[in-house]
Amino acid sequence: MKRIVFLAMLFALVCNVSMAQDKPTKGSFSTEVNFKPFESNGNMFSLEDGYAFKVRYFLNEESALRFKLGFARDAKTNNVDLDLGGYSADQEVSARWGDFSLSFGYERHFNMTKRINFYVGGELGFYRHFASMEGEISLDGAKFDFEFSNMIPDENSLGGIINGLDHELQYLAGMFKDPIEQLGAEPGQAYWGVAANAFAGLDFYVYKGFYIGSELGLNIKSHKTSDREIKYSATDLGSDKIKFNDNTRTTSIKFRIEPAIRLGLTF
Q: Are 191 and 233 in contact, with CB atoms under 8 Å apart?
């Protein structure tokens, strides 16, 4: 019901505005959010790509620079005290993951009508995905540690390490599987990449710098996985580390259209 009321108010505003519209001029800034009125999970508003803040600066009425900065970080820690039939154990597993992106672009604007601007342009950017995890388990004075750099393992990758250990360490390390699942962290590997985007869009200026719009374009992205390192150690059994120097590169080229209405404000 709230969505219907909001859409009705927005439609009425667009249809009934009669005052002159404040289109951007030299020195104007604009920022915007995405609006999905029929989003099933209730998250109708979002930033660019879910986590990036977007700003435009107008050099004049026809030219604008665009800037996007994105940053997201999640961290979870799982602590468990275990009673193993006369043996006591403490374990702690922590995972950290997130994303960073930065891009710059240029837009060429064309004054179509009093309220509508059509624009074309391009942008280049850099993006990075982070992932790491560490764990520690203590069993009656014995301690076993894990540290994963540039990755969050799934059960299979962790199992491969466990199988390579001696019997005592296999027992201790095997206890890590459950807390990994309980963390709710998405298994994966860190990577970094570059992106290029050619785009075209429309801005409809509703009232006093407020606009709605849409955008489509051709997007090219290419990223390379980061080298991974696994360190582990145990009381009285020393320590070791494993390095993975893989050079996996993923490249995608595709047309895209924003799956949302852009709501923006120029000031």
A: no
Q: In this predicted model, what pLDDT tens digit does every residue of 34-67 receive, in sequence order?
A: 887 766 566 777 788 778 889 999 999 999 999 9
80: which 2 tokens? 């468990």
Q: What are the distances in angstroms from CA 238 to CA 55, 69, 143, 144, 145?
A: 52, 44, 11, 10, 11
228 exposed, middle or buried (CB, 10 Å; 0-12, 13-18, 19+)?
A: buried
Rounded to 10°, the helix 155-163/167-174 angle is 160
Q: What is the arithmetic mean of pLDDT over 236-260?
A: 80
Tell me how many helices (H) and strands (E) the chain has.
4, 15
Report which of residues 129 and 162 the model is more confident about.
Answer: 129
Distance between CA 131 and CA 110 in Å, rounded?
A: 43
Amino acid at 60: N
Pairwise CA distance, residues 56 & 68, whole Å:
9
The number of beta carbons lying within 10 Å of the beta carbon of residue 85 is: 4
